[in-house]
Specification:
about 280 residues; mainly alpha; 13 helices; about 65% helix; about 0% strand; globular
């Protein structure tokens, strides 16, 4: 947060506020079962853990508001650090101008560090994650991360071109299969919570398709035209996002009648099979 503030020419107060947000952004996790912490981020959490995790930005906001005299924009930014400008974040699915400038910066800082949790990860990997789905993050804050990534060694591919192409084909098939499944479930929706959950899944799939189309990975020449390591990183990020859709849909639905719950589970089963 401090580095981003300096990159944008912020003053002393701006720097202090930004770094305070960075230090306190996960304060709300103190009130979550420690088994459900964010150490492995969204990538390894099951649905029950996810239910616990998504409340921590709001809890953090309440703690700051009730127990400190920090400026209101600190509490607000902490509440927004998992929100996304396209409305696909949590806990309140805010979008665009609903997310404060400080919240936008904190979201980029948090997502950058989350992408760097993988052993050996470089800033180039974080840069890819921030750009994988257009419209999620504020480009003004992505810029300094991308600029810094250019000064580091290039990403190194861990798979052959043939293996990357096979995974790209798998991802394309998975996106199509998930979309067909969501469309089929939407036609069966009879209750409001079930319909809302499937519509959310459909929206998230549309965002992934946007990232897929923008990346050009659907082309058989994708790995030839771009650096294979970056293609691999983009593919990995999109595949992770696809696997997370079931969890987001279940969270949106809440407690469903047994019949609806079984139907909604088929969405996740289809995604799991397609991305296995």
């Amino acid at each position: 947060m401090g580095a981003l503030t300096i990159a944008h020419g912020g003053g002393t107060r701006d720097l202090r506020i930004a770094m305070l947000c960075g230090l306190l952004h996960d304060l709300g996790e103190m009130y979550i079962d420690p088994r459900f912490g964010e150490a492995d981020a969204d990538r390894t959490l099951d649905f029950r853990s996810y239910q616990q995790l998504v409340v921590h930005p709001h809890v953090g906001k309440l703690l700051i508001e009730q127990l400190t005299n920090y400026p209101p924009d600190v509490a607000r930014a902490i509440a927004e650090h998992h929100e996304r400008l396209d409305g696909t974040g949590y806990p309140h699915c805010l979008s665009r101008d609903q997310v404060s400038p400080l919240g936008r910066m904190l979201a980029v800082a948090e997502a950058t560090l989350a992408a760097l949790r993988k052993p050996g990860a470089q800033l180039a990997r974080a840069s890819v994650a921030l750009r994988a789905v257009p419209g999620e993050f504020d480009l003004g804050w992505i810029g300094p991360v991308t600029h810094a990534a250019r000064s580091q060694p290039q990403l190194q591919a861990s798979m052959s071109i043939a293996e990357v192409n096979a995974r790209l084909a798998q991802l394309g098939d998975a996106l199509q299969a998930a979309q067909r499944n969501a469309d089929a479930l939407l036609s069966l929706a009879k209750t409001t919570p079930f319909k809302a959950a499937v519509e959310l899944a459909d929206h998230l799939l549309a965002r992934l398709r946007l990232g897929w189309n923008a990346s050009g990975l659907w082309s058989t020449d994708a790995v030839v035209q771009q650096d294979s390591a970056e293609v691999e990183a983009i593919e990995d990020e999109l595949l992770f996002r696809l696997r997370a859709i079931q969890r987001a849909a279940l969270l949106c639905a809440g407690k469903l009648p047994e019949a609806d719950a079984m139907l909604l589970n088929t969405l996740g089963e289809g995604i799991a099979e397609a991305t296995a």
